[in-house]
Design a protein that fits this description.
This protein is mainly beta. It has three helices and 16 strands.
Length: 217
């Protein structure tokens, strides 16, 4: 294709939506006030925007989400002003969810790309998992109303409980809480050095669980 065709095919799409996907891997967040985004995820922006975060002793932005007991956190920056910010995370696919006033979701800290600043959020860890994975196992609990963008390696699968999942492949869950179980009989197959295999067991008949075809941690 010639240059004009290339430009027209890949120009940003104009829209009044707060969050929209420019392609499978890039989020366009319309900022009119403030948006929270994963630190380091900005690839471009237009308009009058500023980016702020908390500097760590090692350098870089650690963000506004408090660090977990493991010393690990979910790096988040605040994007303020008026304009559009374009966000991406290592070619992971972007999934946009709209939370209603009564909706809430828990997302693996690695998989939070952005959320509207009006959402209530809280960071936590699953104690029985936090010390078992490199970098800990940090989750972000988000309450609506508002939009949240999460990322997945490949196309996600959404399960309704009861279901057991691999913590490293579990992206998010809503309306249900996991119990952590150990299945040592699987250790030989998966090569766990500890001789144990962790599973997240989601019981009951309500809610949903999001899993990706990739072990992230």
């Amino acid at each position: 294709m010639d240059i004009d065709q290339f430009k027209s095919q890949h120009l940003p799409t104009e829209s009044d939506r707060t969050f929209q996907c420019e392609n499978s891997y890039t989020l366009d967040a319309a900022v009119d006030g403030a948006v929270m985004a994963k630190a380091g995820s900005m690839v471009a922006y237009t308009g009058d925007l500023s980016f702020t975060g908390q500097a760590s002793a090692e350098g870089g932005i650690t963000g506004f989400l408090k660090e977990a007991a493991t010393g690990e956190g979910t790096p988040v920056m605040e994007v303020e002003g008026e304009g559009h910010v374009y966000l991406a995370d290592n070619e992971k696919k972007v999934q946009i969810l709209q939370l209603g006033a009564d909706d809430a979701i828990t997302v693996n800290g690695e998989d939070v790309l952005a959320f509207e600043s009006g959402l209530s959020y809280e960071i936590s860890t699953i104690d029985s998992l936090a010390g078992s994975f490199a970098g800990g196992f940090t989750n972000v609990y988000l309450e609506g109303p508002g939009h949240v963008a999460i990322t997945t390696h490949g196309d996600p699968i959404v399960f309704e409980p009861p279901v057991a999942t691999d913590p490293s492949a579990t992206v998010a869950w809503s309306g249900v809480s996991p119990e952590v179980e150990v299945n040592s009989s699987l250790s030989d197959m998966v090569g766990q050095e500890s001789g144990e295999r962790f599973q997240m067991d989601f019981a009951g008949d309500a809610g949903f669980v999001v899993v990706q075809p990739y072990e992230e941690l």
